[in-house]
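can u pls check wat happens w/ 6-phosphogluconic acid
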Amino acid sequence: MLRVFADPERLSQAAADLIADRSQQAVTQRGRFCMALSGGNTPQRTYQQLARSPLRDRVPWSQVHLFWGDERCVAENDPRSNLGMARKALLDHVPLTPEQIHPMSCAGDPRAAASAYQQLLRDFFSPEEPRFDLVLLGLGEDGHTASLIPGTKAPRETASLVTPVQTAKEDFSRITLTVPAINLARLVVFLVSGRSKAKILRQVLWGPTGQFPAQLIVPGKGEIHWLVDSNAAGQ
Ligand code: 6PG
């Protein structure tokens, strides 16, 4: 499903609305709502919307568990930290206990951190497969999503749920959910905003398949919603 919104504000509003709806649905059907948050700039406004009335009042926070789709291995107070961004925009403003917040901590060896997070997911969802109710994703201009970055091994990693990532141009490592982990989700929501994303969005949605990591996201038993603004949908 592709929905186009006039501006980033309406896009964020609709995204927060969808999250609130699905949180209620999941709690009604399964007793809890498990969501993997995205990093980057685009979801920040959505988190702020969720942290305020009226949307905040529609989310059954006591049954919500928050995870991350990817993280940059930097300190939480580093502006590049996905946890840090989510903490300021959402976590500090909603009634969640520390037991409901499952950040990707990757101090030290990223490979060990990735395995630790995979074990955390297996333990949390056991005896079932780790299956998120909602995975929030963005889209990079190079076609990456989460930290499934072209030119790294991560997009092709299929033996694990979480994998470390090191790019040549960054002085920090990352860890990310893998394609199989994301494709287990009940709902994947891509948020894409801005003119700089118009070309890649057209290529990902209408270009030949298998070109970009974002095209590998095809939930086997789930849905994909693309929420984009008119600038991103320009082409
Ligand atoms: C990350 C993100 C990444 C992001 C895209 C889009 O940690 O880097 O998870 O996948 O979603 O890079 O980022 P913007 O929203 O900032 O354009």
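The pocket of 6-phosphogluconic acid is lined by residues 38-42, 70, 72, 82, 138-140, 144-147 (CB under 6 Å).
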